[in-house]
Design goal:
Shape of chain A: globular
Radius of gyration of chain A: 20 Å
Order of helices and strands of chain A: HEEEEEEEEHEEEEEEHE
Number of domains of chain B: 2
Largest sheet of chain A: 8 strands, antiparallel
Number of strands of chain B: 2
Largest sheet of chain B: 2 strands, antiparallel
Number of strands of chain A: 15
CATH architecture of the largest domain in chain B: Orthogonal Bundle
Strand content of chain A: 35-45%
Oligomer: heterodimer
Chain lengths: ~250, ~350
């Protein structure tokens, strides 16, 4: 709710300023989120049915994938850094969450970079601060509090071919009792001076396979559950997470 | 420019519609907010109250009367409250409730509280009702419950001396219909709020819990032990439920497919709504079919009784071994913690008792 209100104000403000009809008009951008497994699109329709094979050779099925994105910021060649307010809890099973915004208004021009935070950064990851996230997204105080960054769940086949559950949950890392380490990721992607002079769609893509791949080949037989308080597992997730996101920009022809 | 204009037009429409009151002169119900517990206020979004059914003193009083009104049933013998007892946190101590014709259902009645904070607005074990109002249409015509027809229920109320006036006070019309009956009941149900247990007081710094209760909370929150918080709330979610549907490993195959029947999706078979863990001291037996008589049975289930089925929630992670095998001490502490979420005053609140 708050997010939408702010965006509307933003939109009105931008449009309101633009009282000179000759100047190039602002562009409206959608910022969407999509998921794939090594380029094959993944949607809720794949949940519980489609089998994926990870780097380590385990065959798995995903049943839940939710993750948090915040501080989405676009940088243009004039040196502006335009940050969209708010955060988005992406839930693959809920289409309404697959867009960060559908109507952000930006000045046209050459865009150099997009950055965002996977999870919350230290400043934003405040215990109990976000009412809508409190219901089922909190990260336990004993592990540093704040919120989950990702919940990926499903089943994989063990060496006997029997289904075993996995819960790949990521958040703040617990070093030892009362000692915690920030574990969010700042994703910064070069847009290669993309000129955006028309309405555009920016697609932030997560390659789920990367969570199991690089640099740490993930062995679900060893790391399938109870990972939240496991420091090594949390740090490995962070390292693998460095490569999961990429971005596509498309201009919407009118 | 266009955008501004549109929002201005929009605003004026809202303004106009606010001052638009076309009901009769006698109709002047007193609007009243919900008594939001401090801990909810701190942590949760605002409660949901539909714009077309605001809470009023008159509507709540009428709803309370109707909740305890046996005239709603086919033979005038059964009220909502005959399966939803205040002293049991508005559920039924019987495993299966008995309807007016002696027929017995196959699901355990559900406790009723904090319904305005069910942000998914899915009611019943399988989520088939989509609002509090919508839910209340069901039991009256359910064959194994009140087994009435709505025209008949409405006619019975209309024929009484007092109900037409009470509907006039609450809704501005003495002509009763099923929509108004369910609206009034829903208003009463929204006032059934439980948010002042020992654990709430602990979070607010008013009392200190015992070591056993505190350790039990840690077991609840620890992913390698109870790991209950992923579905049942936490110190950040004082509802103590996510109001989402899961298969928590009760059966290898399902007689009752739960959510699957509502969504028609085989992957939803055997999923039921996570119940709140508030007021467990009064709401036995447990689970959708009331299979567990005690909290010890429930804890033993999660600790060593889990069984695999193809929709089991991955959070039931050690199902191959039946569960995480909690130590006897952790089990006792977990139980002590769970009981700290019960609130005796909720079951005895004079505002919730039979007014008839």
């Amino acid at each position: 709710m708050k997010n939408i209100a702010l965006l509307l104000i933003l939109a009105i403000a931008f449009v309101g300023c633009n009282d000179d009809d000759d100047s190039p008009s602002n562009v409206v951008m959608s910022i969407n989120l999509s998921q794939n497994w090594d380029e094959t699109n993944v949607t809720a329709a794949d949940f519980g049915t489609t089998e994926f094979t990870n780097q380590n050779g385990e065959v798995l099925k995903i049943s839940k994938l939710r993750y948090l994105i915040s501080k989405v910021t676009l940088y243009n060649s004039y040196g502006d850094a335009i940050e969209l307010p708010g955060y988005n809890l992406v839930d693959i099973s809920d289409d309404n969450t697959l867009s960060f915004t559908k109507n952000a208004v930006f000045p046209p021009g050459t865009y150099t970079r997009i950055s965002f935070v996977y999870g919350f950064n230290e400043e934003d990851n405040i215990d109990n601060a976000y009412e809508d996230l409190n219901i089922d997204w909190a990260w336990p105080d004993m592990l540093g509090g704040g919120y989950h960054f990702m919940q990926q769940e499903g089943t994989f086949k063990d060496p006997n071919g029997d289904p075993q559950p996995y819960a790949y949950h990521n958040g703040t890392a617990r070093v030892s009792e009362g000692v915690f380490e920030q574990n969010f990721i700042t994703v910064d992607i070069d847009l290669e001076d993309y000129s955006i002079n028309d309405n555009a769609i920016i697609d932030i893509k997560m390659n789920i396979a990367e969570w199991f791949k690089n640099p740490n080949t993930w062995d679900l037989n060893v790391f399938s559950g109870g990972l939240m308080g496991n420091y090594d597992a949390q740090i490995d997730m962070n390292q693998n997470g460095q490569n999961v996101f990429s971005v596509d920009v498309a201009i919407v022809e009118e | 420019m266009k955008l501004n204009l549109i929002s201005l037009v929009f605003l004026s429409v809202i303004l106009f519609s606010c001052s638009n009151d076309d009901s009769g002169p006698d109709y002047n119900p007193t609007e009243v907010g919900l008594e939001v517990p401090e801990i909810f206020d701190l942590l949760l979004p605002d409660p949901l109250i539909p714009a077309n059914n605001p809470q009023t003193v008159e509507g709540i009083a009428l709803g309370r009367k109707l909740f305890y009104e046996p005239l709603l049933s086919g033979d005038g013998t059964q009220a909502c409250a005959d399966c939803h007892f205040a002293e049991n946190a508005f559920t039924d101590p019987d495993r299966f409730s008995t309807g007016i014709d002696g027929l017995i259902g196959d699901r355990n009645a559900m406790p009723v509280f904090n319904v305005a904070w069910n942000f998914n607005e899915k009611f019943f074990w399988d989520g088939r009702a989509l609002s509090v109002e919508d839910q209340a249409f069901g039991p009256v015509v359910n064959l194994i419950e009140m087994n009435n027809t709505w025209p008949n229920a409405v006619a019975s109320l209309q024929a009484t001396d007092n109900y037409p006036d009470l509907f006039l006070d609450a809704f501005g019309t003495a002509t009763i219909d099923s929509v108004l009956v369910t609206k009034a009941i829903a208003q009463f149900e929204r006032t059934l709020i439980s948010g002042n247990s020992r654990f709430d007081k602990h979070l607010l710094g008013e009392i200190t819990l015992t070591d056993s209760e505190l350790n039990g909370f840690n077991v609840f929150m620890d992913e390698t032990k109870g790991d209950c918080f992923h579905c049942h709330g936490s110190d950040a979610n004082p509802l103590w439920t996510d109001n989402i549907f899961h298969n928590n490993g009760l059966d290898t195959s399902f007689e009752d497919i739960g959510l699957g029947k509502v969504t028609n999706d085989p992957l939803d078979h055997g999923k039921f709504k996570s119940p709140s863990l508030r007021n467990l001291a009064y709401s036995a037996p447990y689970m959708h079919d009331g299979r567990f008589a005690t909290l010890d049975d429930v804890i033993n289930h999660y600790s060593e009784g889990l069984v695999w089925s193809y929709t089991i929630d991955p959070l039931m992670k050690t199902f191959a071994e039946g569960g995480v095998h909690l130590s006897p001490e952790d089990k006792a502490d977990l139980k002590a913690f769970l009981l700290s979420l019960s609130e005796p005053e909720f079951t005895t609140n004079p505002d919730f008792q039979d007014p008839n």
